[in-house]
Amino acid sequence: MAIPGIGPQTATAILASAPDPRQFKSGRHFAAWLGLVPRQYSTGGKPRLGRITKRGDKYLRTLLIHGTRAVIAKLADKHDQLSEWAKGLVERRGYKRAAVALAAKNARIIWALLMNQTEFKTQPVAG
Question: Is the pLDDT score of 127 beyond 60?
Answer without folding.
Answer: no
